[in-house]
Amino acid sequence: MPTKDFSFAHHAERFNDHISASIPGYLELADLCVRLAGRFIQEDSSVIDLGCTTGRLLAAVHERYSGRRKDVSYVGLDVEAQFRRQWATYVSHDLRFEVRDARQFKPDRPISLAMSIFTLQFLKPSDKMPLLQRLYDSMLPGGALLIAEKTLASSSMLQDALTFPYYDTKLRNGFSSKQVLDKERSLRGQMTLWERGKLEDNLRRVGFAEVECVFGHFPFFCYVAVK
Ligand SMILES: C[S@@+](CC[C@H](N)C(=O)[O-])C[C@H]1O[C@@H](n2cnc3c(N)ncnc32)[C@H](O)[C@@H]1O
């Protein structure tokens, strides 16, 4: 039976619950991003969240740091217009959201902090490096990219060994076996995953001098990459 492609529009209303149940440790990761953000946000810069979905993470960063540095624009981008209703609750003089493709975005001020939390994995392989390069080139020295990605294991044996423990976690989080399988089928062909080593290498290739893994539950890992 054909399965429909996974749609963020379809999940928009309850996306925060969906991502917390789907990604083990997601709320801790979001909290870590908020805590790390303060180390990198600089005066006269932009803080951007690529693939911001409901805007909750960017709003939490904004709530914690707005006004602490002068002239900072907080900008959330997502290609999916269905998140607009949720953005409306957060918008303020220095926080805005745009329905926009991250590949076309040009920041009005240099970036001090970019977040890409499980977003790059949805881009075509040929679009990933140009976007990383553009983020790096638009960034102030000392600025950082917080990037979380679903990744592949470093060998087929480990991919096999680690996949079922991940499914078990989803079952424990309340998904049925059918929902787990349907989600995998609906995502087939939509994600372009890298191994962790390739993600790290590619962050260094575009120029990031310091790259550190700050969160991980296979297959989900987050890195901080500093210019
Ligand atoms: C897994 S979700 C990201 C989760 C989100 N960062 C969070 O923490 O809630 C991926 C998001 O990326 C968005 N997206 C995919 N391709 C995009 C692109 N080229 N530009 C901007 N957003 C994109 C999707 O619409 C989706 O909302």
TrEMBL record:
What are the entry keywords? Methyltransferase, Transferase
Methyltransferase as UniProt keyword: yes
Q: Single GO molecular-function term?
A: methyltransferase activity
Q: Does the keyword Methyltransferase apply?
A: yes
Q: Which GO terms describe its biological process?
A: methylation
Residues in domain Methyltransferase? 47-143
Domain of life where this protein originates: Bacteria
Name the Pfam families on file: Methyltransf_25 (PF13649)
The molecule here is called Methyltransferase domain-containing protein
Q: What is the lineage of its organism?
A: Bacteria, Pseudomonadati, Pseudomonadota, Alphaproteobacteria, Hyphomicrobiales
